[in-house]
Design brief:
Layout (H helix, E strand, L loop, with lengths): L5 H9 L2 E6 H14 L4 E2 L1 E2 L1 H5 L3 H10 L4 E4 L2 H10 L9 E4 L8 H6 L2 E5 L2 H14 L3 E6 L11 H9 L7 E7 L11 H17 L7 E3 L3 H4 L9 E2 L22 E13 L4 E2 L5 E2 L5 E6 L22 E4 L2 E4 L9 E4 L13 E5 L5 H7 L4 H6 L6 E5 L15
Parallel strand pairs: 1-19, 2-10, 3-4, 4-5, 5-6, 6-7, 7-8, 8-9
Antiparallel strand pairs: 1-11, 11-14, 11-18, 12-13, 14-17, 15-16
Helix pairs in contact: 2-4, 8-9
Bound molecules: pyridoxal-5'-phosphate.
The site of pyridoxal-5'-phosphate has 13 residues, from helix 10.
């Protein structure tokens, strides 16, 4: 076994909070998606630093698992990803930029070989007109709106594109896509409506762009059935272990564990309060409270404070049991009521689970009045990060895994 250098060992014992990202779980989730959509290419949505897990380690692992198409939100994320992905793998990885082409940035996209997901005829014209200047034939995706009313061209635009070849002269349209608004809810009637609108658009454009594939499904969409798969599916949150469904068990493997260190244990006397605002009190009996070294600056939302929400506050897994938060979440600390634990079950220096196998990211999201998606993407930069399996790549150890 390789001995760890002292710097690294000290860093680990000195960390107030540790985030462990299980890349094997990400790979297993990718495999599950492939099994569920056997007829389609399974891409990976890695926007927002791979939903907070770290773009570098996640993208390298997914590439090693055979993923060749990636989606990011903007060109800066795309340029970072281009540096991360090995240039030597074949076929070469494709990077789409979901937020499209920002005005005046075509040269940047071309340089990093990014494909904008074009959502208007104006964007399309700008990319087309940049072609001769930047690199000849330019690949791109076309985004159509089928009911989300966020981004995308209309069915009338699709009809124009089908008829007028000059509109896409010099462009190689490699993807025609739309996005589902309600894929988390299989019973929602908007799914079928969007599917039928998208089919109409695709039937019109497929003969015009024979080299293109169609794509409609995000994570939830993959489980709506093969009609929704088309040539390529675009899962995000499910890769990272979040539950893409509302009101249904999560079949995906959790990929994130966030732990905070017990930095103090105290007996709080009857009638005393804990934390800012004095919102929690011991009542008539003494209580035992553990102070943990993580807080809202680590993305552990202040909405998890006890009594902050009617659903109840957060819980932490500590000393073998789930214990409730006591009072308000501070910037760097959380107080937990451990009075229910046997003596000696918790000692200073122990680690407590904030998110992990006992307390899922979706449970934390629910308790904070939001979604697992927001909990993941809000994970702070201060955690000491560990990746499973470990990596020899120094870049994986630096902050959020950027190249
Ligand atoms: C974020 C996003 C996805 C991934 O959605 P998940 O629900 O995380 O699977 C797919 N497509 C588009 C257009 C997106 O913006």
């Amino acid at each position: 076994m390789k001995t760890r250098d002292i710097g690294e060992a000290v860093q680990e014992t000195a960390a107030g909070a540790i985030l462990t990202v299980d890349l094997d779980a990400v790979a297993a989730n990718y495999a599950m998606l492939k099994k569920q959509a056997p007829g389609a290419e399974v891409s990976a949505v890695v926007k927002a630093d791979a939903y907070g897990l770290g773009l570098g380690p996640v993208a390298r692992r997914l590439a090693a698992e055979g993923c060749r198409t990636f989606f990011v939100a903007d060109a800066n994320e795309g340029a970072a990803l281009r540096e991360i992905l090995p240039d030597t793998i074949s076929p070469a990885p494709i990077i789409y930029v979901l937020n499209g082409l920002f005005p005046g940035t075509a040269a940047l996209y071309a340089k990093a070989r990014l494909r904008p997901v074009l959502a208007s005829l104006a964007e399309l014209a700008e990319w087309r007109d940049a072609g001769p200047e930047v690199s000849g034939v330019l690949p791109a995706a076309l985004h159509f709106d089928t009911g989300m009313n966020r981004l995308g061209m209309s069915a009338a635009d699709a009809a124009m594109l089908a008829q007028d070849e000059t509109l896409t002269a010099g462009l190689e349209i490699s993807l025609v896509m739309s996005h589902l608004a309600c894929a988390d809810d299989a019973g929602h009637p908007q799914n079928a409506q969007q599917l039928s609108r998208f089919r109409e658009i695709w039937e019109r454009l497929q003969p015009r762009f024979p080299g293109a594939v169609a794509s409609l499904a995000n994570s939830g969409g993959v489980w709506l059935g093969p009609d929704y798969h088309f040539g390529l599916v675009r899962p995000g949150v499910s890769l990272y272990g979040g539950n893409p469904f509302t009101g249904r068990a999560n079949p995906f493997h959790p990929a994130v564990r966030a732990e905070a260190r017990v930095i103090a244990l105290r007996e709080v006397a009857p009638g005393e309060t804990v934390g800012y605002g004095a919102t929690w009190n011991t009542g008539g009996a003494p209580r035992r409270v553990a102070i943990l070294g993580a807080g809202y600056a680590d993305g552990y939302f202040r909405a998890l404070s006890s009594g902050a929400r009617p659903e109840s506050g957060g819980v932490v897994h500590i000393g073998g049991a789930a214990c409730p938060i006591a009072g308000r979440i501070s910037m760097d600390m959380v107080a937990v009521d451990v009075s229910g634990l046997p003596d000696g079950a918790v000692t200073r220096g122990d680690m407590a689970e904030l998110i992990g196998p006992h307390i899922t990211v979706d449970d934390v999201g629910f308790r904070a009045g939001t979604l697992g998606y927001e909990i993941l993407t809000a994970l702070g930069r201060r955690y000491m990060r560990r990746y499973i399996p470990g990596s020899n790549d120094k870049r994986d150890k630096e902050g959020r895994g950027q190249a």
